[in-house]
Each structure stands twice: as structure tokens, then as C-alpha cells.
Design goal:
The chain has helices spanning 13-27, 31-37, and strands at 53-60, 69-75, 80-85. It has a three-stranded antiparallel sheet with strand order 1-2-3, covered by helices on one side. Helix content is 22%, strand content 21%.
Amino acid sequence: MLDDRDDQFGEYAHEEILQALVRHLLTSADLDQLCDDADLPQLTHDDGTPVTITSARVYRDAGVMTLDRGVWLELSDGSVFGLTVHISRRPRSEVTLRRR
């Protein structure tokens, strides 16, 4: 059951919450710090400065008429990546949203 303050998530709460979570995780720290935290190599420009996320915005339907949602990442090196939250099954029972 949805709480009045959670109406923004509507019928597709799972997808929208996961989409917002991915966007938040990818913008909560600099890309080089996120790579360090994950024990991954860092992306750097020719001059040695780290590549950064210049924009992370959510999208709906991935531009292909599906219910999938995702996040477009634009990086400072000019590259753009789309991360899709693909829905393969929804919950079978009622789910309650609550804030901590």
C-alpha cells in the first residue's frame, strides 16, 4: 500500500526506486573515488586528470517503447552510457513503501 508522501512512485515503485538509487550511487562521489571503492582502475584523460561524470539523468522507456527505466551518464571525456533497469518480473504480493 502506498503512503500519500510516496505517491510520486506510483504503480512502478520498484523500477523508479531502483532508477533513483542507481543515479544517486553514481553521483554520490567522484568517479575516481567510486572506482577506488570498487577496487577498479580509474579512467583518466591524456593529461592524467580523472574522467568525471558531468551529467546523470534518469530516462523512462529507454527510447524503445518498453517499461524499462535507466540512467544516462555523460562523462567528461565526451562518452555517454545508458544503464537500463530491466524489469523481468514484478512482485506477486502487495509491497509497502516506507521511509526510515
